[in-house]
Every structure is written in structure tokens, then in C-alpha cells.
Amino acid sequence: MKLITAIIKPFKLEDVKNALHAVGITGMTVSEASGFGRQRGHTEVYRGAEYTVDLVPKVRLEVLVDSKEAETVINAIVKAASTGAIGDGKVWSTPVEDVVRVRTGERGSDAI
Amino acid sequence: MNFNTGDTAWILVASAMVLLMTPGLAFFYGGMVRGKNVLGMLAQNYATMGIVSVLWITGVYSLAFSGTGKWIGDFHQFGLNHIWQQATGFESLTIPPLVFCAFQLMFAIITPALITGGTADRLKFGAWTIFCALWLVIVYAPVAHWVFSPSGWLFKLGALDFAGGTVVHANAGAAALAVILVIGKRKGWPKERMRPHNVPFVLLGAGLLWFGWFGFNAGSALSANTLSAFAFINTNTATGAALLAWIIVEKIRDGHATTLGAASGAVAGLVAITPACGFVSPMGSIAIGFAAGIICALAVGLKNKFGFDDALDVVGVHLVGGVLGALLIGLFATKMTNAAGSNGFFYKGGWTLMGHQVVAVLAVVAYSFTVTYILAQILDKTIGLRVSEDAEQAGLDLSQHAETAYENSSYSDGSRFLSNFTKTK
Predict the structure, then answer these.
(1) Distances from the Cα of B303 to the Cαs of B179, B183, B224, B236, B400, in angstroms?
(2) Complex ipTM, two decimals?
(3) pTM for the whole thing?
């Protein structure tokens, strides 16, 4: 099993959600995040004083998948989240040892 | 006494409009501070409304306007005793003395309130209330007497100040600079990011100020007639010109015209036209407004150059704008607007008026700065003016008032002392 984590532009969330539905993903966790990568932040000016705002608002999306689906899911996210501009974000996958569905007690792939 | 009901009604309304300027100012300033200090700012301004309202009636009105003294009033109208008598030199007024007292009260409220912008984010609330009360008595009352009372020495000299460019703005600006020098910089300034937390509040406050300022300036005619109409139209014209000038400076210098710049420019214009609005022509007010917009937009950079932390630019806008307006009267004043005024340099009046204006500006700024500096030093050495480092880090809202304005309002300012504060006691 894999945990796919994606940091994307907030306005791309809708597209990414739809793309994940299309490849059969039924659940996900989304949280608001902020950070920076190579994009860095932006500059604001107040009464002539410049401020660099380096933490940019992003959305973090997490999906648990079966290992064999990981590639499809990653590709779906990357395709849907891409604008080609700087700051599009990142997607990575992490191996997951175990998963439990709280309601039923099912474990492993059955719990996904 | 023969009162004119039209004049009386107008000045009562104008008084209420001037009162509204202080909440307006509180939002103008409150939007510019960080989210953890906005209630602290509002609290200092509202407390000022309370303190001055009580003290003015009790005795400060009498000290400012009663009697024939050159330097200060007397105790004749303490507790509003003898309030059926017009203040000395105001015998020809067509409004009841009590209405004049109410109108002047509102000026006395906003003047100390202006100081809170310079000292933002670091004053103890209790210390502010004591400072405010003492400052009102030993700085505002005498200065108002010198300039506004016909027995005051600057009034007698022939210096012109229609609505308080020196008494209110230069006075508050100089006082703010003095307190800033005593209490020092905000922790982290100028390195740390301290951007305005709510620019829409700033614009809302500026709008309330602009509206209330019609009461301030046009009301200063103390009657409803052509003179008050001149003051009204000059106020609006200069404000518009200053707004445009400030954002033009920004566009050229920084690349963008900003909303904060528009609000700041409007306030700079309001400040600069205040002393001049009842003495200049509408075309003159365009020149004064443009000059104020450009010069104040540049003057707010002085604090970075000289290293004094005038948090919200009270010096750059109110001291510089107030002085500028007072001096430009020396050029633009015309008896065609106000027969009781004088002609400035551009209206064949020579440099006499300018000379009087320079004396008035120097006297008010020097007195206000010196006395305020001494007062602030004494208070700082005794009760302490400044909050502790932990309290400053947590924000005035939490440390001074046990409130927060927003969910997580300290979070975005990296307040690691937040938990300490909630746990103590």
C-alpha cells in the first residue's frame, strides 16, 4: 500500500478531485497548507515598505492506494494539477505498513 | 444672547461627526497593526473617548477657553460653572456656549487619540490612560488656548489655524515622536514582517474620517454660511488631490498604486487642509492637497532613514501634513474666502503671514515635543509605559485585555508565548 501526498495549487483541487474520481479513487483527505519551494513567495508593498511573503497558500491532498494503483493515481494528479507555471507543487508516495478501517476493523488492502 | 437655530443645529451635528472620527481613526490604525494588536488599538482609542469626555467637562474646557490669559485659561468654568457665558473672545457667537464646548470636546478627544498610531503595539493600556489624561491637561489645553482662544498669544500674533492644523495635527505628531523616542522600537522592527492585517479596515476608517472631517473643518466656521461652505469644499478638494498625488508617487516609485496609499493620501490631504480650509480658495486647496500627497508619501520613509519606529506614520502624515498645511496658509490665504483672515504671499500679502505661521508651528511643535518627552520619561521611569517582552510577543489583545479578535490571531505572528499567557493564573 502507498500513501500518495500531493501539494497543489488551491484552485486546482476541483480538477484533481475529478481526475481521481475518474480513475476510481473513492476517498481522500484534503488540508490547507502553506509553504514554498523554488517558486519562493511574492512581494507586497505597504506605504513604500516592501515585504516578502514567502509562505504561499497551497492545498495538501492525501490518498491511500493499493501499490499497483499508485502509478495511475500519481499520473492522474500530475496531469490534473499541472498549469506549466512555477509553483505547481509536488507529488510523492510513501510505503504504508498497515491500514485499519475503524468501523469494521478490516485491515490492509481491504481497509482502503 | 441671540442664538441662531441654523448655526446651532449645524454645530451639534458637526460635533457628532467629529466624535465619529475617533472610531474611524481606530479602524484606520487598527487595520494597519498586526492581528494580535487590533483590540489594543481600538481599546486605546475608545478609552480616550471616555477619559477626555469626563475631563473636558470637569475642567479642561475651562483651562483651554475661559479667561483672558495669554498662556492658559482659568478655573472660572470648572465643572461647566458659568457655562451660560460665552468663552472669552467668542462673545459674538450665535450658538450656545454649551454647544461650542461640545464641539471643542470632540477635537480634544481625537488629538491624543492620534498619538496611538505612532506608539502602536507596545504601550501598556493602563499607562496610556494616565498619559492621555495628563497630556490633555498639560499639553492640549495650553496649546488650544494659544491658538484657538482670542486671548491666546499665537491668536493675538495673527497666526491662522482654522480647524487645528497646529493644535491637533502638528501637536499630536510632535507628541507621538517624543513618546516613540522614549519607549523605543517595536520588538523586531525593522527586520521582522509587520504588514497591515486588514487593509479593508484601513479604508473603512479612512472613509469615516473623511466624512467626520466635514464636521471638523466646516464646523470650525461655528456657523452655517458661505464660510463653512468654503471650508467644506476646500476640505473635499484637497483630500481628493492628495489621494491622487499619493498613489501617483507610489505608481512611479513602487510600480503599483495601492489601496493603503489611497487611504493614506486622503488622510494626508485632510490633515494639511485642516488649518487652511477657511482661508484659501478651492483652487488653492488643490495645490495644498497635491503638495500634501507628495510630501507625506515621501515623509513616511523618514522613519527608516532615521531609525525611529513611528509604527503607523503619525509623524510622516500628521506632523509633516499639519506643519505643511499651516505653512502653506502663508502662501495661499486670501481675504476673498475669509475677510477675517489675511492675504498670503500669492495674494499680495507679502511674507508677514508666513512669518506668523512659522512662529506658530515652531512654538507648538517645540512645546508639545519637549513637554511630552518629559512627561513620557517620568511615566516610563515610574509606572512604565511599555509592556513586557512576553506581553508584546503575545499581542496587546491578549496581554492587555484578555481577548482576541480572531481565531488564531496570534498564530500568524509566530507568537510562541501564547500558551504561557493562557496558562498563567
Answers:
(1) 14, 15, 41, 29, 27
(2) 0.73
(3) 0.87
Contact A48 B193 (CB under 8 A): no
| Residue B82 sits at the chain A interface (C-beta within 8 Å) | no
Closest CA to B376 of B122, B115, B178: B178
Q: How far, in Å, CA of B242 to CA of B169, rounded? A: 16
pLDDT-based confidence at residue B193 (cuts at 50, 70, 90): confident
Residue B409: which domain range? 389-423
A52 interaction partners in chain B (CB closer than 8 Å): 193
The domain total for chain B is 2
Classified as helix, coil or strand, B29 is helix
> Which pLDDT score, from 0 to 100, does residue B422 have?
33
CATH number, residue A11 = 3.30.70.120
A92–chain B Cβ distance below 8 A for any pair: no
Instruction: State how many domains chain A has.
Output: 1
Domain hosting A53: range is 2-97
Within-domain flag for A109: no
Q: Give the pLDDT mean for A87-92.
A: 94
Same domain, B313 and B403: no
- CA-nearest residue to A53 within chain B is B193
**pLDDT average, residue stretch B190-197:** 86
